[in-house]
Amino acid sequence: MKKMSLLAVVFFFLCFNNISAKEYPSIYKGIRPMGMGGAFVAVSNDSNALFYNPAGLADITERRVSLLNLGVEFGRKAYNTIKDARGVDFEDESETAGFLRDHIGEYSHVGANLVPFYSRPNFAFALIGTTSVNLQARNRQYPKLVIDAVGDAGAAIGYAHAFLDNTLLVGASGKFITRKSLDKEYSVLDITTDDFNDKIDNDTEDGIGGLLDLGLIYLLKDIQISTKNVDFRFGISAANLGNNDMGDAKNIDDHIDLGFAANIDNWMFALDYVDVFTQMNVGDEDATKRIRIGAEYAFKPYLLFRFGFYQGYTTFGIGLNKKNVQFDLLSYAEEVAAYSGQRSDRRYALRLGLGF
């Protein structure tokens, strides 16, 4: 008896291929930035600068190679959905319809990324492998499954330089992306047919693109406030410029982001406003969804605590950052409807990095 469950859809993209259903699309969400509420445009002082603001590459202070930079994340509903799917005979129309009805209205998200990198002062290079799958069941009378998925593979390279006595950082990065995307709705009859795997393959679209990011960060150092010396950072980035039409696959939208950060002792505070000119195709103009607020506290040089507000929802993170091993945990919520506060999907993620 065939056991072609939702797992087949998930594993297809996890093995061979990001995702949006009114989410803000991204090629890669760094787990450190997301722990800080996604506010990273003015921070960007590690390899994540390749995806947030390449100007920050000029603020990297050490050489690092990560041979394994692996991240996985699950939405709160995804575990139960996938667990229940394992016991369903998806050749049987009654069982398939019952399974979908049991999960009507739920938003099930799972994602993974593998982004090994090399970084040193002024320069970074990374290989890109990211994937994410969202599943939703609709229509109780005639159940249907909505699959919205995108997977990216490629590479990114960036360089930045400091000017004006190291107060103005200017950088650029390029990304080459091959993309697979799937955005379809399937009936019970579609799912129970013998050729459902072939249908998934045929409905998956392919595309290739080359992207350019440009960024600036301006530093105001050692500003005396009361008894504290504060470093202020102002950032702007223009992301995904160039050939962002991905052919038949889902396009990658260009956007301009603004950021502000302040470094006080062991604290880093940050505030971003992303997609300033509403260029990203998410079908809304809700300002709250564009606000990112966060902080990072270095309890020890190798132990960091992060928290923030992403699209109006709290984020929490903890990072263990040693030279050879990095381990991060994260909880954040994604707004999956038109405006902040309407419908959130709480997610949990971890990252393991091994290198030198």
Question: What does this entry look like structurally?
Answer:
There is one protein chain. The chain has 356 residues and is mainly β. The protein has a single domain, classed as Porin, CATH 2.40.160. The protein is 14% helix and 52% strand. It is built from seven helices and 15 strands. It has a 15-stranded antiparallel β-sheet that branches. Strand 9 and strand 10 form a beta hairpin. The longest helix is centred in the first third of the chain and has 11 residues.
CATH topology: Porin
User: For the CA atoms, what is the radius of gyration?
Assistant: 21 Å
The pLDDT mean sits at: 92
Q: Using the coordinates above, name the CATH class.
A: Mainly Beta
Q: Could you describe the largest sheet, including whether it forms a barrel?
A: 15 strands, antiparallel
Number of strands: 15
Structural class: mainly beta
How would you sum up the global shape? Answer: elongated
Range of strand content: over 45%
Give me the strand/helix succession. HHHEHHEEEEEHHEEEEEEEEE
Number of helices: 7
Give the name of the CATH architecture. Answer: Beta Barrel
The share of residues in helices is 10-25%
End-to-end distance, in Å?
48 Å
Q: What are the low-pLDDT stretches, counting only 5+ consecutive residues below 50?
A: 1-5, 16-21
**How many independent structural domains?**
1
